[in-house]
Amino acid sequence: IFITACAALIAGIANIVMIFEVKEQKRAVSSPALKLIDKNCEAVYKDNYWEWGGNKSHGIPIELINFGAGPAFNVSINWFVEMKELLETIKQFDQKMEGMLQIGNTFHNTKLQNNKKFHAIPAYDKQDINRLLIPWYYVSAFEKFIEIEVFNSENEITFELSAFPRLLADISYEDINKN
Questions:
Q1: d(CA 111, CA 101)
Q2: What pLDDT tens digit does each residue of the chain (179 aa) get?
Q3: CA 57, 109, 105 angle in degrees (round to 5)?
Q4: Which of 64, 91, 119, 160 is the most buried (most CB within 10 A)?
């Protein structure tokens, strides 16, 4: 009887381990894997205006692709940049306008530009590309940075792009299991 009880206990422990293993496999098979795909973008300055990537649209498009096996739901992208550092880089002071930023002659609502939402992004499909735009205030600040460092500089045209603050993206989503 003791041997039968020990065998039953070992079988029970093995079943519990298998249950956790199957649950982990199910999660791995149905989980999304989101990635922002960057690309080079050509900028042309003519007639006191910047053209990005051959178009005059406000923003530089990048792609958000789901390389995972399952769909991503309630996708939220929040852009972050150290605003004080950004303003110092373009030699501009904060105008103390909550959520608004003036760069040159343009005004930008940073709160609206910092958030983007998608209801669902299916697993990778070449036909289904989710585009987002880099916030226009960040692009405008970069244009201003180039104007200060290159066009208004009396020195040789050498500057460090690393001096310009980085833009970070925080991506949150849920998988089919609400994880």
A1: 10
A2: 788 888 998 999 999 999 888 877 776 777 888 888 877 777 777 777 777 765 555 567 788 888 888 888 999 999 988 888 888 888 776 565 677 787 877 788 888 888 888 888 888 766 667 888 888 888 888 888 888 777 766 655 666 677 788 888 899 999 887 77
A3: 70
A4: 64
Tokens of 156: 């040789």
Tokens 């992004």 belong to which residue?
121
Q: What is the CA radius of gyration of the chain?
A: 25
Whole-structure pTM value: 0.72
Q: How many helices (H) and strands (E) does the chain have?
A: 4, 10
Q: Which residue's entry shows tokens 């003519």?
A: 46
